[in-house]
Amino acid sequence: MINFWKYQGAGNDFVMIDDRDNKFDINDYKKVAFLCDRRFGIGGDGLILIRLKEGYDFDMVYFNADGHLGSMCGNGGRCAVRFAHTLGLFETKTKFWAADGEHEAELDESNTVHLKMNPPGEIEINPDHYFMDTGSPHYVRFEDSLENFDTVEEGKAIRHNERFNEEGTNVNFAEVTGDQALTVYTFERGVEDETLACGTGVTACAIAANIEKGMPSPIAVKVKGGQLAVGFEKDSDKKYNNIILSGPATPVFEGKIDA
């Protein structure tokens, strides 16, 4: 029997497992896929193990819903922080390890998690889209309107085009809705579907909005699952740093499952 918790961050939902005893087989992708299955398992956009790591409060091990180890997940990271706090691994501020390295985060009195994201590397600026890695690879395209927009079909076509078919990419469509506001829809690789939110995706969109629209920090981002915010600084070399992804991380339920 596996003890689990279910958390969601702006509609991005995750199966959480306390694996500080390292008993979970990280190579059993079929088990992970089963646990993430919304009909036969628990259901989730991904699965996260909380493990111990020397020098850090915890290690976040993230799996995509297809069962395979994934790259950094921003909303998953925020949920991992809230879960680790519940486990008593820190009080208000934490330093933890994830797929893309070290992260810091803070949990405030309203249970909002403020997660420091790693800076993107090279930002690819193309005539109709941006491409960057904000912990996971992201394609960003601005749209005049997202009303009645088919995120799944548009996203799937880009994710499986000649360039991205083998390695995959997350695909984001962003609409400017105010001086410091965006609406973002995301098609996620690994899930292979639209998700209600994507933390690394809205981070990429906020950076792209600063480049293309001159939109200043912080940027409010509306997603289908709720509201997020991205703050950042840009230095004299036009490099982005001190990127903070903020939003809710909420426990939904806990239970046991035979897997």
TrEMBL record:
Reactions catalysed: (2S,6S)-2,6-diaminopimelate = meso-2,6-diaminopimelate
Binding site for substrate: 12, 64, 74-75, 170, 188-189, 199-200
Main localization, broad class: cytoplasm
InterPro entries: DAP_epimerase_DapF
Pathway the protein acts in: Amino-acid biosynthesis; L-lysine biosynthesis via DAP pathway; DL-2,6-diaminopimelate from LL-2,6-diaminopimelate: step 1/1
UniProt keyword list: Amino-acid biosynthesis, Cytoplasm, Isomerase, Lysine biosynthesis
EC number: 5.1.1.7
Site location (Could be important to modulate the pK values of the two catalytic cysteine residues): 138, 188
Family statement: Belongs to the diaminopimelate epimerase family.
Subunit: Homodimer.
Name the UniProt record assigns to this protein: Diaminopimelate epimerase
Species in which this protein is naturally found: Flammeovirga aprica JL-4
